[in-house]
Amino acid sequence: MALLKKPPAVLALEDGTVYYGYAFGYHGETVGEIVFNTSMTGYQEILTDPSYNGQIVTMTYPHIGNYGVSVYDMESNKPFARGFIVREFSRVASNHRANQDLQSFMEEHKIVGIEGIDTRALTRRLRQGGVVKGVIRHGELSKEAEAELVERARRHEDIDGRDMTPEVTTPLPYARPTFKDNPRVVVIDFGIKHSIVYKLEQAGAEVIVVPAQTTPAQIMALNPYGLVISNGPGDPDGPKYAHDTVWQMLGLLPTYGICLGHQLLGLAVGGKTYKLKHGHHGANTPVKNLVTGEVEITSQNHNYAVDIGSIPGGQFRATHINLNDGTLEGMAHTRYPVYSVQYHPEASPGPHDASYSFRRFIEEVNAFEGATALPAARALGDL
Ligand SMILES: NC(=O)CC[C@H](N)C(=O)O
């Protein structure tokens, strides 16, 4: 039997490194910032997590695609990752939950992939040198075309400093009517994952998701008892308007920031964020809860972090730290029921160690006496 000849593809990094592999997914070319993810499963959740907007993901787990794609595992309506790099792509999907295979899913959503890449070497390159931009192109390449691809990666706009929220936020607010007897929580959508909404509902909230540009007055007009500042893509320093919104909302409601939401909280109160060398992307990161002393294994997806020391006036205290590199993983306001985590408590994919935080947040929401209590505290000048 003749061996199936796989179509060629190339991955070129801005530092001049070129890898040869085989094409899969949508036929074409793509460019983005390359990050590695160490999750063993969850490729569909990863591809459809809006926080990967602008990034090409490489998986350290070597065999990808074997359980297909399921409508139940979407984290948003479509993939946001710009491209996918894997060691070995499985064209066969075997899973009773699958509605589609990964190949047709990627074709349908125009996601370009490359397989047959030494993803261990690529990951070591990213660990040692930090994140890089890269281009995937399907087809045979001449030497001159290689140089042109490297140049294309170099010239591609950096994620740093950009506001990506308009590319991911919902155009209109939406309410999920099923839970309307529960206390209302407004979620500002900077690129939310569906799992965060589900976890809030499971914990006992009625959730209304509003566009990123919603003003504090519009939020308060919905009579919420809690506020969630969602995850999302890009540099938290990019969406300046969001710092303003979060600052104006501070202390008005029990508030929970997740990932980008945590970073926006830090910036809103005058702190600083910085870019990590290669980010944290995976489902197995140990985080120490400084309140309980326990270690949680967490799901993570971020490239930036909050420098808690830069927050003026000691407004927040650290509640969680990353046991691998000591970076900040969670913080709580010293006076208000306002707190945030850098990791993903909804864990999709990943372990469920941190899901208690949704229940805790809803306890705060239930205990909240209404929107006049906290503003009064602010009026007394305690900020
Ligand atoms: N998952 C997120 O919300 C990511 C936050 C931000 N875009 C970062 O990379 O750090």
UniProtKB/TrEMBL annotation:
Residues 1-183 are annotated as: CPSase. L-glutamine binds at residues 51, 232, 234, 260, 263, 301, 304. Keywords: Amino-acid biosynthesis, Arginine biosynthesis, ATP-binding, Glutamine amidotransferase, Ligase, Nucleotide-binding, Pyrimidine biosynthesis. GO terms for biological process: 'de novo' pyrimidine nucleobase biosynthetic process; 'de novo' UMP biosynthetic process; glutamine metabolic process; L-arginine biosynthetic process. It comes from the Bacteria. One of its GO terms (molecular function) is carbamoyl-phosphate synthase (glutamine-hydrolyzing) activity. Pathway: Pyrimidine metabolism; UMP biosynthesis via de novo pathway; (S)-dihydroorotate from bicarbonate: step 1/3; Amino-acid biosynthesis; L-arginine biosynthesis; carbamoyl phosphate from bicarbonate: step 1/1. Pfam families: CPSase_sm_chain (PF00988), GATase (PF00117). Its EC number is 6.3.5.5. InterPro entries: Anth_synth/Amidotransfase, CarbamoylP_synth_ssu, CarbamoylP_synth_ssu_N, CarbP_synth_ssu_N_sf, Class_I_gatase-like, CPSase_GATase1, GATASE. Residues 7-137 form the Carbamoyl-phosphate synthase small subunit N-terminal domain. The active site is at residues 259, 344, 346. Gene3D superfamilies: 3.40.50.880, Carbamoyl-phosphate synthase small subunit, N-terminal domain. The keyword tRNA-binding does not apply. SUPFAM superfamilies: Carbamoyl phosphate synthetase, small subunit N-terminal domain, Class I glutamine amidotransferase-like. It catalyses: L-glutamine + H2O = L-glutamate + NH4(+); hydrogencarbonate + L-glutamine + 2 ATP + H2O = carbamoyl phosphate + L-glutamate + 2 ADP + phosphate + 2 H(+). Composed of two chains; the small (or glutamine) chain promotes the hydrolysis of glutamine to ammonia, which is used by the large (or ammonia) chain to synthesize carbamoyl phosphate. Tetramer of heterodimers (alpha,beta)4. Belongs to the CarA family. Small subunit of the glutamine-dependent carbamoyl phosphate synthetase (CPSase). CPSase catalyzes the formation of carbamoyl phosphate from the ammonia moiety of glutamine, carbonate, and phosphate donated by ATP, constituting the first step of 2 biosynthetic pathways, one leading to arginine and/or urea and the other to pyrimidine nucleotides. The small subunit (glutamine amidotransferase) binds and cleaves glutamine to supply the large subunit with the substrate ammonia. This is Carbamoyl phosphate synthase small chain. It comes from Truepera radiovictrix (strain DSM 17093 / CIP 108686 / LMG 22925 / RQ-24). The gene is carA.
